[in-house]
Amino acid sequence: MTATENGTGTEAGTEAGTATGAGTRRAGRLVSGPGMLVVWLYGVMSVGAVSRSIYQIATDFDRAPLAYGLSAVAAVVYVFITYTLVRGGETARKAALACCVAELAGVLTVGTWTLVEPSAFPDATVWSDYGYGYVFIPVLLPLTGIWWLRRAREGARAVQAA
C-alpha cells in the first residue's frame, strides 16, 4: 500500500517538505474545501440515522421491521462513508465512491418502493420518499459525494502528472 493509499500523503523516497510531497499530501486529502462540507453532512446524517435506528429498533421494531431495518442500513452506510472520507487516500476514495453509488441506488429504490407500495412501510425510513423527511438530503448527498470524489480523483491525477 502506498502512502497516498493509506492517507499519509507522501510517497516513498520523497521528502515531506518538497513540492512533490506537499502536492501528494493535498491530493490524498478528501476533507478539504467543499469536501469538508460533504464530510460534515455525512457526519450529521450518521448521527441522525444511528440515533433514529437504535431508538426505533429498541422501542417499536415489531411495528415496522422493514422500515427500521432499512434505517439501520442507512446508518451503517453513512458511518462508513464518513469514515472513509476522513481517512483519505486513494483506497478510501474508491471505497467511499462505491458506497455513495450504492447509497444512491438504495435511496432511489427505497424512495420508489415507499411511493409505489406505502403499505409496506407503516413508518418512514431515512430514505422514504427520497428523503423527504430529511429535506431530500439523502438523495442529494450521494450525488454531491460522487461529484466530490470524482473531482478528488482528477486532482490526484493532475498532481501525479506534474
Question: Can you give a write-up of this model?
Answer:
The protein is an all-alpha fold. The chain is 72% helix and 0% strand. The chain contains six helices and no strands. Helix 3 runs antiparallel to helix 4 (65-87). The protein is elongated.
| N-to-C CA distance | 22 Å
Q: Main β-sheet, in a few words?
A: none
- What is the general shape? elongated
Range of helix content: over 70%
- Looking at how many chains there are and whether they match, the oligomeric state comes to single chain
Q: What structural class results from the helix and strand content?
A: mainly alpha
Low-confidence stretches: 1-27
Based on CA atoms alone, the radius of gyration comes out at 18 Å
Strand content: under 5%
**SSE arrangement, N to C:** HHHHHH
**Number of helices, counting only DSSP H or I runs of 4 residues or more:** 6
The average pLDDT score comes to: 82
- How many strands appear in the DSSP assignment? 0
Mind sketching the topology for me?
Blueprint: H1 3-6, H2 19-28, H3 34-60, H4 65-87, H5 90-116, H6 137-161
Which tags fit this structure?
162 residues, mainly alpha, 6 helices, 72% helix, elongated, disordered N terminus
Summarize the structure.
The protein is built from 6 helices and no strands. The chain is 72% helix and 0% strand.
